[in-house]
Amino acid sequence: MQKLTGWLGLAERFLRDPAFEDRRRFLKSLTLFQDLRFTELGHLAQCMHSRVYHEGESLFLQGDVGRALFILKSGKIELSQMEEEGRPRSISIIGPGEFFGEMSILEQLPRSATATAAERSEVLLLYRAQIDSILHYHPRIGVSVMTRLAQLLSARLRRANLALLEKPAS
């Protein structure tokens, strides 16, 4: 019996998809998914789409309806907004392990910024339809992700409010 268990473990290691395992490990490293179990991370990894964007390529444009959360696996993404004069103004640079476009998971409203690859970037996408499916069929995963997302958005809002308070009056 012990010999069989050893062979099964060895076969499982050889049969596993290295890209899938890499994605699962990456997701585990993110604060957004830190409360998920190993198998739950695997399910979430299966629900995500991977895409590579090349330098200068737009991920989405300001005003587009949001349908996905983006998680940057590698590279850099610049977020910008159009000024009244019609020129783009950089508002943030996103690095590996950070997520953006999260408001689209909560509401399907026009994007508040444009996202452009500042260099070759690999991005994981979690579409709103996938989140809805997860919430329905795997509520523990969905609730964990939505709770963590709410906490992270709250922290971002708090930082933005502090930055406004610290800004000198004109």
Describe, in plain words, how this protein is organized in 3D:
It is built from 6 helices and 8 strands. The chain has 170 residues and is of the alpha+beta class. The strands form 2 sheets. Strands 1-8-3-6 form a 4-stranded antiparallel β-sheet. The chain has a 4-stranded antiparallel β-sheet with strand order 2-7-4-5, with no helix packed on it. The radius of gyration is 19 Å and the shape is globular. The termini are far apart.
Map the helices and strands.
Blueprint: H1 2-15, H2 18-28, H3 38-47, E1 49-53, E2 58-60, E3 68-74, E4 77-82, E5 88-94, E6 99-100, H4 103-106, E7 114-117, E8 121-127, H5 128-137, H6 139-166
Antiparallel strand pairs: 1-8, 2-7, 3-6, 3-8, 4-5, 4-7
Helix pairs in contact: 2-3, 5-6
